[in-house]
Amino acid sequence: RTISLVTFENSEVISEFDLQGFFNRVARGEEYSETRLRELLRYNVRPMYEEKGRMGVKFCPCSAVDDPDNFGMRVAVQVDEGPEYQYGAVPPPEIPGFEPEKVEGMYSPKAGAAVNMKLARESQAAIEETMRANGFIRARTQLDVAVDDEAKTVDLDFVVDPGYRYSFDRLVIEGLDILAEPIIR
To answer: How far apart are CA 8 and CA 75, in angstroms?
Structure first.
């Protein structure tokens, strides 16, 4: 049987209606099993809570009953939001060739602030984009996340692999007329 409707209970940080509206677009029509439901919740709803600093969010127990309106299943998900986590250690990334002041502006998470994993991922992308703009075309950044459930903190470590630095050599334009060539150059 497939999922026809999912409802959420005990959610305060994110409105139950917002969760239902978002998640039902994802889950409706999926074959129901608790394993599949948990997987959908982990990849679709958990990031919404991680954006709000709720790293310990738990879903279920879940109950599923036949939907009298169709041949699907109505699923009720119990949400345990858990406490809000704070950033612990967030050392500045070590990027060869960049001054520490410039590196500071590339990432946003600061120690002691409320966790927002969306912001952390955006910072990771900003580091890579800045490096590409400075000639490190194949720069890659790995975001190592260490969650301490006892202290309710999240340590971040941006591990940067800059790769080789590329430089522009020359531009050769052929086949243009005398008026178009200066514009292209």
So the answer is: 9
Give the tens place of pLDDT for each residue, 29-39.
999 999 999 99
CA 125, 93, 104, 143 dihedral sign is positive
In angstroms, what is the C-alpha Rg of the chain? 24
Condensed to tens digits (0 to 9), the pLDDT of residues 167-178 reads: 888 877 788 888
Q: Would you say 86 and 53 are in contact if contact means Cβ atoms under 8 Å apart?
A: yes
Tell me if 139 sits within 8 A of 151, measured CB to CB. no
CB 90 within 8 A of CB 155: yes
Per-residue pLDDT for 15 more than 80? yes
**Mean of the per-residue pLDDT values for the chain?**
89
3-state secondary structure of 54: coil
Q: What is the DSSP letter of 146?
A: E
The token duo for 6 is: 């999912």
Query: pTM value?
Result: 0.78
Averaged over 28-54, what is the pLDDT?
94
H or E stretch at 79: strand 73-80
- Other beta carbons within 10 Å of 60: 15
